[in-house]
Amino acid sequence: MEGAVAGLVLVGVLVVFAAIIVAKSIALIPQAEAAVIERLGRYSRTVSGQLTLLIPFIDKIRARVDLRERVVSFPPQPVITEDNLTVAIDTVVYFQVTNPQAAVYQISNYIVGVEQLTTTTLRNLVGGMTLEQTLTSRDQINTALRGVLDEATNRWGLRVARVELRAIDPPPSIQDSMEKQMRADREKRAMILTAEGSREAAIKQAEGQKQAQILAAEGAKQAAILAAEADRQSRMLRAQGERAAQYYQAQGQAKAIEKTFAAIKAARPTPELLAYQYLQTLPEMAKGEANKVWLVPSDFGQALQGFTKLLGAPGEDGVFRFQPSPVEGDLPKPEDDSDEVADWFSTETDPAIAQAVAKAEAEARAPVQGAIPGTQQSVTAPVQFNQPPQQPIDSAQGGRHSGSGDL
């Protein structure tokens, strides 16, 4: 009985020992992770991403190293600038283990080593810069830090991919001074821009007033020229119309006299009728407003008798009767001056006047030098005085004429 119990205990011990041996001899290393294996305390090999067999109690895994790129943020470090100002700089380092054996055997803690190397290098770089240069030279500092760290950590089996300055915090007093300076700069720029705007506005306003006055003066000048030209043309046309009207009136009076004379000769009036007409005319002669007293001559009868003797001849009974004057067949006709006065009735504008008006219009529409872009001048077109021409009265047509025009 005692022997059976001892045998079971021995079997159990053997099973446990076998399990331990199996656990010690098999190791599973995942991908992106490396294991450094030692044999009897010395480096044997590095395995990654596989099932590895170990010799129990002889081989052991010294360290497991993560092969992925790691991001480490270091706490803010106080750094003194060239102008003796202390700033706190927070850095972020991106690195990756490329040689697990060197990362295990060359340095005890590579993360602490990277942190300390970053701090010392950062103080060395920033110590040669002023605060303003430090704030405006982040890219330069990042590039310099990366180059130094990558060279220094290469023997540790590390590769520094990137270094970033996450924050640069000046002292509170410097921050307050910087804020005041920036506020003053903004106010200065605002005042400068306001002054520039006021100056530009004043200049533009003065230019606008200048151009307005120039345009007004030009418009008044062209208006005066056109008004004078229009007045000249109107006076010339009015004079031409009065001259043509007087010519028409003279022609009418000539025709009226001719018709009256012909009618008197055809009617053959007696001296009694002429005397009667003479007596009827006398009161008309006395109707003038300036005539207060009208005297009839005492020899009025002898005057009538003399007038009768001039117009008549005594008949067989001794009575004076009207004796018409002999009709002359070849009487001279009035001279035809239609060709000479033809241009009196033309109302067309003189070419010289038209040329002067066209020149005035061209000058009025010409842009003024220095005018504001977009402004245009406009002058009202002059009144056209062209009218259809009239023909003078032909004396052979008895004072009749065809066509009429407004003079």
UniProtKB/TrEMBL annotation:
Family: Belongs to the band 7/mec-2 family.
Keywords associated with the record: Membrane, Transmembrane, Transmembrane helix
Name recorded for this polypeptide: Paraslipin
Membrane topology: Single-pass membrane protein
Main location: membrane
Residue spans of biased composition, Low complexity class: 351-369
Domain Band, first and last residues per copy: 24-182
Pfam families found in the cross-reference section: Band_7 (PF01145)
Residue span of region Disordered: 324-407
Biased composition (Polar residues): 374-394
GO CC terms in record: plasma membrane; side of membrane
Cell location: Membrane
PROSITE patterns per the UniProt record, alphabetical: BAND_7
